[in-house]
Automatic annotation (TrEMBL):
<dbReference type="GO" id="GO:0003824">
    <property type="term" value="F:catalytic activity"/>
</dbReference>
<dbReference type="Pfam" id="PF04055">
    <property type="entry name" value="Radical_SAM"/>
</dbReference>
<keyword id="KW-0949">S-adenosyl-L-methionine</keyword>
<dbReference type="InterPro" id="IPR040084">
    <property type="entry name" value="GTPase_Obg"/>
</dbReference>
<keyword id="KW-0004">4Fe-4S</keyword>
<protein>
    <submittedName>
        <fullName>Wyosine [tRNA(Phe)-imidazoG37] synthetase, radical SAM superfamily</fullName>
    </submittedName>
</protein>
<keyword id="KW-0479">Metal-binding</keyword>
<feature type="domain" description="Radical SAM core">
    <location>
        <begin position="13"/>
        <end position="242"/>
    </location>
</feature>
<dbReference type="InterPro" id="IPR013785">
    <property type="entry name" value="Aldolase_TIM"/>
</dbReference>
<dbReference type="InterPro" id="IPR058240">
    <property type="entry name" value="rSAM_sf"/>
</dbReference>
<dbReference type="GO" id="GO:0051539">
    <property type="term" value="F:4 iron, 4 sulfur cluster binding"/>
</dbReference>
<keyword id="KW-0408">Iron</keyword>
<keyword id="KW-0411">Iron-sulfur</keyword>
<dbReference type="InterPro" id="IPR007197">
    <property type="entry name" value="rSAM"/>
</dbReference>
<dbReference type="GO" id="GO:0046872">
    <property type="term" value="F:metal ion binding"/>
</dbReference>
Length: 254
C-alpha cells in the first residue's frame, strides 16, 4: 500500500516499533533548528490550521490499522511541528475510539504549549516527548532559531503548563550541541527548569547525521554521561554513537 501521510512502521530507539504520522509534509515549523537532520525549515510559521485534511489522514490510518499490525506507538512526528495542525485532536479521537489498543505518542518542540487550547487538543495522547534544547535565551536563539516573538520563557512556561494540565507521560528530550548548551551555566539552568517541568524521564540526545549547520559536532558518550549524572536519576542517554551516514536523512523522523 502507498501512503502519503503515514510512514513506517520504523524501529525507533526511543519508542520501539512506531507508525509515524506526518501532519505537515512540507516541513512547516516554528523553529529552524541548527541540528535538524531534515535540513532547513521549508516554511517558517506559527499559524495553526488544517494544513492537510484530517479526514485523509484518518482514512490512511484506518486502511493500515485494519490489518492489526504489532506496534509500540503511533507517533505524530515527521517533517514539521505536529501541534500546528488545528485538527490533531480529531485524529487522536478517531484512534482512541476505533483503535484504542494502540498507544499514541507526540514528538514536539513544545513551542505552542503556553496556549491551554493546544493542551486540550492533545490531552488524550499517551506520551508526549517535548524538546528543550536551552534554558538561556541566547542559547535558545542560537540552537532553535524560533519564529519571531517566541522566547525560551514561553517554552518553559508551556512545559510547566503541560505538567499541570496533562495526565499522560512526559519524556523531556535535550539535544546537546557541544560548546553551545553544555556549559556549566546552561546545565545548572537545565537542572532548575527540569525541577519545574517535572517530567517522568529526561533523554539526552546528540547529532548522528549532519544537521543544517556543518560546524556542529556530536557530543561524546562521556560528555553525555557526565551531564546525565549532574541532572539526576531520571536521565538516560539515548544518543546514537555510531553515525548512520554522512548525509542528511531522507526518512521521516521518529
Amino acid at each position: 500500500m502507498n501512503f502519503e501521510y503515514i510512514f513506517g512502521p520504523v524501529l525507533s530507539r526511543r519508542l520501539g516499533v512506531s507508525l509515524g504520522i506526518d501532519l505537515l509534509p512540507n516541513g512547516i515549523c516554528t523553529f529552524d533548528c541548527i541540528y535538524c537532520e531534515r535540513g532547513s525549515t521549508a516554511e517558517f510559521n506559527i499559524e495553526r490550521k488544517e494544513y492537510i485534511p484530517a479526514k485523509k489522514v484518518i482514512k490512511e490510518l484506518d486502511r493500515f490499522l485494519k490489518r492489526k499490525p504489532k506496534l509500540d506507538y503511533i507517533t505524530f512526528s515527521g517533517s514539521g511541528e505536529p501541534t500546528l495542525h488545528s485538527k490533531i485532536d480529531k485524529i487522536v479521537g478517531f484512534l482512541k475510539q476505533n483503535y484504542s489498543e494502540y498507544k499514541i505518542a507526540l514528538l514536539t518542540n513544545a513551542s505552542l504549549f503556553a496556549d491551554k487550547k493546544i493542551l486540550d487538543k492533545i490531552k488524550k495522547i499517551d506520551l508526549i516527548v517535548p524538546s528543550l534544547d536551552a534554558v538561556l535565551e541566547s542559547t535558545f536563539q542560537t540552537i532553535n532559531r524560533p519564529v519571531s516573538n517566541l522566547s525560551i520563557n514561553d517554552i518553559i512556561d508551556g512545559l510547566i503548563n503541560l505538567d499541570k494540565n496533562y495526565t499522560g507521560k512526559i519524556w523531556l528530550e535535550i539535544f546537546i550541541v557541544p560548546g553551545v548548551n553544555d556549559t556549566k551555566k546552561e546545565i545548572k539552568a537545565f537542572k532548575k527548569a527540569i525541577n519545574q517541568i517535572n517530567p517522568q524521564r529526561i533523554q539526552l540526545n546528540t547529532l548522528d547525521r549532519p544537521g543544517v549547520e556543518n560546524w556542529i559536532q556530536p557530543a561524546t558518550k562521556k560528555n553525555l554521561n557526565q551531564i546525565a549524572a549532574t541532572l539526576g536519576d531520571k536521565v538516560e542517554v539515548v544518543g546514537n554513537f555510531k553515525p548512520r551516514r554522512n548525509q542528511k536523512s531522507k526518512n521521516k523522523v521518529i
